[in-house]
Amino acid sequence: MFDLLMAVLHHIIIFALFGVLLAEVVTVRRGMDAAAVMRISAMDLWYGVLAGLIVVVGFVRAIFAAKGWHYYEHNAFFWAKIATFVVIGLLSVPPTLQYPKWRRAGIAPTDDAIAKVRRYLLIEVVLFVPLLALAAAMARGYGWFG
Fold this sequence. Notes:
Elements: H1 2-27, H2 34-64, H3 68-73, H4 76-105, H5 111-139
Helix pairs in contact: 1-2, 1-5, 2-4, 4-5
């Protein structure tokens, strides 16, 4: 039962994170105003909280759930998935640093600043495709090198 609960929780948090990321993509657009900047700051906080929860629940699941750590530590797709998640996390840093600057300025960001942040967000969205493909392959036993 623990394995099922951890799997469900892990998936719910991942989908929530993706939903927040899509909300950021929709909100960060040309013509956004100071109110949108405030909303995006709150969304980005949730993005960070959810990302942290994914890591915690994911490793609890990997270590204590049905397959156990031995399965994951010897799986190349697991490590590729982790690396992809780290890249997504690193790509989220520039927008996270930019939002408070926009908020403190108290004015709408320039179109150039918005375009730059959107590029990071869109690359994050695109990287979810290989992330999910790696997770699906890993769960089916592909990538085992032990």
